[in-house]
Amino acid sequence: MSVKVLLAVPPGIDKLELYKVLGLKAPPLGLAWIAAVLERAGHKVRIIDSPTEGIDLKTFINEVKSWQPDIVGLTAITPTVYKAYDAVKAIREYDSDIPIMMGGPHVTFMYEEALNNGVDVVVRGEGEYTTLELVNVIEGHGLDPMHLRAIRGLAFKDSDQVIRTPDRPPVRNLDELPPPARHLLPMDKYTIFGKPIRIVHIMASRGCPYGCSFCSTSYFWGRMVRYRSAKAVADEIEDAMNTYKTNIIVFTDDEFTLGKRFVYDFLKELRERKLDINFSCGSRVDTIDKEMMTALKSHGCTALYFGVESGSQETINKIGKRITLEQAVKVFQWAKEIGIDHVGSFIIGFPWESINDMKNTIKFAMKLNPTYAQFTVATPYPGTPLYQQALNDNLIEDWNWEHWTTLRAVMKGYRFTKEQAQKMLQWAYVKYYSRLGFLIHELIHGRLGTVLTAIKNSLVPWFTERLLGRSE
Fold this sequence. Notes:
By secondary structure, the chain is of the alpha/beta class. The chain has helices at about 15-20, 30-40, 50-55, 55-65, 80-95, 105-110, 110-115, 130-140, 145-150, 215-220, 230-245, 260-275, 290-300, 315-320, 325-340, 355-370, 385-390, 420-435, 435-445, 450-470, and strands at about 5-10, 45-50, 70-75, 100-105, 120-125, 155-160, 160-165, 200, 205, 225, 250, 280-285, 300-310, 340-350, 370-375. The protein has 20 helices and 15 strands.
């Protein structure tokens, strides 16, 4: 027997700040991986990537009605979770009995909230095998609590009691997972900055050993980093290039360069297969050296993404980042010498900071002078130590999850208001990107329009809000 499973990114989230500002259309790799595991087990799966397809709630429900799935699964991150709950409600109005499961970082930690919003079962953490077991149990026994209790990595209600089953250990050998089911995704619609450039997103590893206090990665995927084999990753890239006729690859790993052996094995695969790709990846200033950076560039790496986070060593130590400012200076210098685009990511508004600390972070960003700087405001996502701290000290002032985009301040600090943090974020962008040298550099490289669009998108809501004098 096979079950029909509909997996979806909830409709309506393309209207959120998160999507409007970044113009991002990235595929739901997590859903595609779960779909691949379900398909391998003989189930019928469909994925609806609503924001990418521009599907609204009404259209979404019509799709549910016409396909008539046996089970619906939704994914959500913090800013999109209300839209996911809206979808649950609408599905319930159409069919009150259909089992609805939900997964993703937000509900992994806030599972009680999800269960109180009509979700039957929350899949916590890494989802492939948990979902497969869940689908098999629902096929044979429905939502019978006795059977659900035997599955690791779930949360559900048994009458009024919330049951959280033991955590599921992470998948040790990622190569045993089939490649993501890209054939179920609208692959020609994944673009960057709205340009018609086809992109293939690849994840080579999961987990992160660092456990930074603001980031949910190591609390969701685990504190152990697990790499796929270089061969499996190269196979997936080669297959995607042939199928989708593109050579632009984006690695979604938080930290691609941590596994030195993996990196060099991977580059060797590219060489031996004569794969001519352009790719970008995330790195850390303490896991890359000049030699690796050179090797990456010569094999088609066009951009490196570094989380520097702060211009204060004290803050870096406090958040558990385990790097030094000197390392950042050195690595950004190498990137300029080698001539590789590099993005520096900076966070302002940690609770203990002063306005001056934030200004120093912005100054440090200007000193490093990466090709692009990304500024965000510290956001205490559920599941992180920062959330516990913000909760304990009563710092959170905006509980509307839709605002938790990192582009809008939701908490105050011990020495600054929420409004001051927001102002500092705008100031960071204006300060960094209005420098003449930067603008001339972008103009020469023909990228000024793209950059101005992104900046305009992040600043315009702010300016218009000020002009119209409306406060939320």
